[in-house]
Amino acid sequence: MAERTRHASRRPMDRRPAVTSNATATEPRRGGSLEDVRIGTVPILWNNADLPDLGPVVPADVVLDEIARLGYEGTQTGVGFPAGAELARALAQRNLRLAEVYAALAASTDGPLPEAESAGGTALEALAAADGDVLVAALALSPDRVTRAGRADAASTPRLTDDGWRRLGRLLNVLGAEAEARGRRLSFHPHAGTFVEAPAEVDRLLAATDPDLVGLCLDVGHYTIGGGDPVEAVRAYAPRIDHVHLKDVAAEPLERLRRGEIGGFLEALRARIFVELGAGIVDVQGILEALAAADYHGWIMLEQDTTWGPPAESAAISRRVLAYAIRNLHREARPGPAGAPPPATAGGARTAR
Length: 353
Known about the structure:
With about 350 residues, this protein is of the alpha/beta class. About 35% of the residues lie in helices and about 15% in strands.
């Protein structure tokens, strides 16, 4: 992991757009316990656009009501959500914020395809129009890579060419500059089933981009699928990490994916490779400790692409597990008198970090 640290030049982590909506978005204080991070969720749990046949569409107002009821503070855009000022109003009415808009950039082994630039620009416009915070960009699922998810390091796996990396770096730097000009920030999301999945590819991506313009959205689940250790990733990439997707990974589907017994990333989603926080193999507490040690103060977005149970139930479980894990950090940071019992947990989800 030492090589990764060399590439991770310092990116300012307090570049946040001015808050102009009515939603509560208190500027967090830097600290070592994550007590002031903002916690959001990704509504793909309710409606998965990549696998629409998984179930009936849940109306957007129902999704937003459930996100607010469960104690989340923000969301990514989702299926059927309104846009622009209408979305900002819908979020403010529920005391929520638009944490991010996601942009999937089409690519081949030669780098971004012509439509990638316009896709990024459209997503940035949507983010700014709804007064959102972070533009999260990833490469789109590629036929060359989606069936190789979990085996990105294999010699036979197609990869970006040297010129492809240069073209990708240029595109992201341009998009990052445009985001900065709009008072937003760009955070790149390594993603299973794309040309930036494995740790070595994350290294190459960071080396190809300007640290002042392109941050890193660490999705701990995708990084795990790619063969990495997310705790070590937080330690190595901390200066570039400005956005986090927190999820857990089920051991059995992951092993089957790595053995080639599951036919790629989308089939892994059908096998429910992502599970509720605390139910899989990801070291959630270790990740949070590493983020706290790095004084992280961006969004933590809980995400689970598919679930066997009701979406709201899975979202509630993960939110409570995260609240418990963060309270453990608080206790370590502020120990009470010797022999004193641990502090009582907060009664409401909003106050239980």
